[in-house]
Amino acid sequence: MKSENFETIAIRTQTERSLHKEHSSPIYLTSSYKFEDAEEMRALFANEKEGNVYSRYSNPNTSEFIDKMCLLEGAEDGFATATGMAAIFTTFGAFLKSGDHLVSSRSVFGSTHQLLTNVFSNWGVTFDYADLDKPQDWEALIKPNTKMIFVETPSNPGIDIIDLEFLGDLAKKHNLLLVVDNCFATPYLQQPIKYGAHISIHSATKYIDGQGRVLGGIILGTKELIAEVVGFARHSGPALSPFNAWILSKSLETLAIRMDRHCENALKVAEYLEKHPKIKLVKYPFLPSHPQYAIAKKQMKQGGGIVTIVVDGGIEAARKFMDRLEMFSISANLADTRSIATHPATSTHSKLTEEQRNEVGIEQGSIRLSIGLEHINDILADIEQALA
């Protein structure tokens, strides 16, 4: 049975059953594979035949996870990595060489910023940052040696959004590779490839797992582009473990229902906090007050599970609020079943200068709220008492 429905694809896509006729996919904890004869070994290593050679290259569990994600994201092929940052590093490493230039959204995860400023810059790759809320400035940054446009949308933690269709047209006009970090939206809420992105990246550690258990990442795109990714990754070795791939593939079975609740809870939290006298600012894609609300409504199914706020009173007020939270976890992670509060300026984005943080809207009073799956009354009650 073939289906175009997200939930059915996520649940029913799996590896071919073994002779044991298992209902749920088993875990293939093997580092290597047996060949029928010397000729099969030769043919597999020569890429004349498809099959598993070594689990750094492929494994039935990672293959199942990739197959599901390709169907859900609208991609032709993919490569699964050990972490989300491994996915970003592998993508940059596969396509950027000394002398190339990159245009990136200024609002990127702290470790992505570190890769651009302290790693790839040492290898002769230059970059310019552009603001998500100033699309008119992007084209002027493109140079003859520009190779790639990289963007997070929604961004972390500012929840800024850019029109993916605009970026797709811009990339096509200048023959550039458009890479989108789709982590916050997940394929359930947004499919960048549909709008012209060539590659979509996820930190599967976040909503795809959704329960704070394992690390993982994935790179999705055309067969031609993923072949270049695989060529780099097979030798640099950022492969996802079979166990983690099994967890992530099983987690996809509940992604839709989890995201529905994350989004429902997050919108209610955002609406509540927008009216609170101690909150200076609330950013959430599906609030009409969000600067890119119309774009979010166009390209996202719902607003996601992250709400970013600025507490009136700066860092001391932010610390007081976080320390008074009783149910929320204080953690640097996000996208868990459990609600989490993070202070980006002193954690995930602490390596940025204060000027750089201000440029992407991270104030001393900024707090990123990852809204979980607890009952909404309990979530709101904890926030209310912490702000009292």
Automatic annotation (TrEMBL):
It catalyses: O-succinyl-L-homoserine + hydrogen sulfide = L-homocysteine + succinate. CDD domains: CGS_like. Its EC number is 2.5.1.-. Pathway: Amino-acid biosynthesis; L-methionine biosynthesis via de novo pathway; L-homocysteine from O-succinyl-L-homoserine: step 1/1. InterPro entries: Cys/Met-Metab_PyrdxlP-dep_enz (IPR000277), O-succ-hSer_sulfhydrylase (IPR006234), PyrdxlP-dep_Trfase (IPR015424), PyrdxlP-dep_Trfase_major (IPR015421), PyrdxlP-dep_Trfase_small (IPR015422). It comes from the Bacteria. It is an enzyme of class 2 (transferase). Keywords: Amino-acid biosynthesis, Methionine biosynthesis, Pyridoxal phosphate, Transferase. Pfam families: Cys_Met_Meta_PP. The modification N6-(pyridoxal phosphate)lysine is found at residue 206. Its cofactor is pyridoxal 5'-phosphate. SUPFAM superfamilies: PLP-dependent transferases. Homotetramer. Belongs to the trans-sulfuration enzymes family. MetZ subfamily. Catalyzes the formation of L-homocysteine from O-succinyl-L-homoserine (OSHS) and hydrogen sulfide. PANTHER family: CYSTATHIONINE GAMMA-LYASE (PTHR11808:SF80), TRANS-SULFURATION ENZYME FAMILY MEMBER (PTHR11808). This is O-succinylhomoserine sulfhydrylase. It comes from Pedobacter jeongneungensis. The gene is metZ.
